[in-house]
Amino acid sequence: MGLGVLEDKYLEKVPGTALLSEIGIVSGEEVVIAEAITLKHGTGRSTRVVLVPQPSDDPNDPLNWPRWKKEACFWTLVLLATLDGALGPMVGPGYVLLAEQFGVSVDEVASSFGTMLLGLGSFMLFQNVFATKFGHRIVFLTSVFLMFMSCIWCALSPNLASINASRLFQGFGMASVQSLVASTIEHIFFVHERGSRATIWSFAIMAGITLGPLLYSYVVQNLSWQMGFWLVTIPFGISFLLTFFFVHETLYIREVKGHTPVNKSEKPVIEEVESSRGPRIPARKSFVSGLKPYHGTFTKTNVIRIFLRPFPFLISPVTWFLILVLAMQAVWLSLMPICSATIFTIEYNFNATQIGLTNLSGFVAIVLAVCTGGPLTDWGSVWMSKRNKGIYEPEFRIIFFTTMLLGVFGYAGWAGQGNPIDTLDSL
Q1: What is its main location (predicted)?
Q2: pLDDT tens-place string over residues 337-365
């Protein structure tokens, strides 16, 4: 496979391996890959890039959507991701105030965040089944509506038990934005575009996580904790309308084009195919027809089989690595609000607003990461594909994943120098 990627000994067509660049570098010279001539290419600066996956001729294929439709769908989901990220930890600066109001400990108040994570994690298993069977649109609409209604419920809650129950349903609603957006990006964008889009989506979630507590802290300090949830219902209501109008169904069953080389030791050959009249191209569906919340089923597979299908992947070390990464993120998201609320209140007598401001440092780091990470991964994938005789391998993106070690070692090194815990918490 080239560039250190091991050859597969069992599969002729390896999933993810595809011809991405029509230009390959062989023996130090650029050559045109013959197989790429018959394939569809990108436009503008990407005219030398082979589209992966190859779009169909159907204008209703999400890969063939007009640019404005793709962007409207994507940026609506980015807004949802920001609100989704903010909804979880935003109450952190108000933990002490809530504990005093309800006469409980800060840990008991923080348990509402754990309840939300319970709902988020458990519903992820089921929303994948619904999305695969019935499409993404109906799941997104239901999720946004759940988050909208649960925020109203939380604002009206008379006690901590009611808050915990409402946060559970917030977790149900958050599940789709945490997981389905990644597959939606795959539905409407090509491989050479996905890195920057996935980075923007991740940035939106992390921006919500860092800015949500900051904004909520001003509200809880100057108004009330209930008003914070009332105010967040406004953007959720707007997001529901945007989702209804612009997030059309992206699940599409297309015939897979055979553009992945079977044997990379052989030179690509252009075969002559007898000309024949192909199938009739469907007419473009109207914008109004795409507003239907439900578009039928997309697979005949039983829902039980769909539910059980991911579990065999648990034997893969890659799966456990990803579980560890996401689990650590969830742990820190639940731990940091508690640390901030207790450490800065007890040691420095910070109010809710000052506690919220400690999140700014994290936001600065996120901005720096998104400005470099996304464009770098897309450019790097094309660059390495050219040096691999035009062939793209999914493993190329692993190289950019190693940058996370900088943050891990930096944080550990800072802690190892004996800096106080409050300094570490804010940085």
Answers
A1: membrane
A2: 666 666 776 667 776 677 667 767 667 77
SS3 8: coil
Please tell me the distance from the alpha carbon of residue 176 to that of residue 128, in angstroms, as a whole number. 8
| pLDDT the model gives residue 270 | 40
pTM: 0.79
Topology classification of domain 62-254+295-401 = Growth Hormone; Chain: A; (1.20.1250)
Q: So what's the pLDDT on residue 39?
A: 78
Supply 305's token pair: 């089989």
CA distance 288 to 244: 11
Q: How many residues belong to the chain?
A: 427
- Vertex 235, ends 327 and 328: CA angle to 5°? 10
CB atoms within 10 A of CB 50: 27
170-202: pLDDT as tens digits: 988 988 888 899 889 989 998 888 888 888 888
Asked if residues 134 and 297 have their Cβ atoms less than 8 Å apart, the reply is yes
DSSP 8-state symbol, 307: H
Q: Which position has the token pair 């979880």? A: 88
* Residue among 380, 425, 383, 412 nearest 398 (CA): 380
Q: At residue 269, does pLDDT exceed 70?
A: no
Pairing of strands 391-392, 23-26: unpaired
What sign for the dihedral angle of Cα 139, 70, 33, 276? positive
CA separation, residue 407 to residues 10, 45, 202, 209, 318 (Å): 37, 33, 16, 18, 21
* Cβ–Cβ < 8 Å for 422, 58: no
Classified as helix, coil or strand, 25 is: strand
> In terms of DSSP H, where are the helices of 33-105?
67-87, 95-102
Q: Where are the alpha helices (DSSP H) in 309-403?
A: 317-346, 352-357, 360-386, 398-401
Residues 337 and 225: their CA atoms lie apart, in Å, by: 15
Residue pair 78/246 in contact (Cβ under 8 Å)? The answer is no
Question: From the CA atom positions of the chain, what is the Rg in Å?
Answer: 24
Q: Judging by beta carbons within 10 Å of its beta carbon (0-12, 13-18, 19+), is residue 113 exposed, middle or buried?
A: buried
Mean pLDDT throughout 396-403?
73
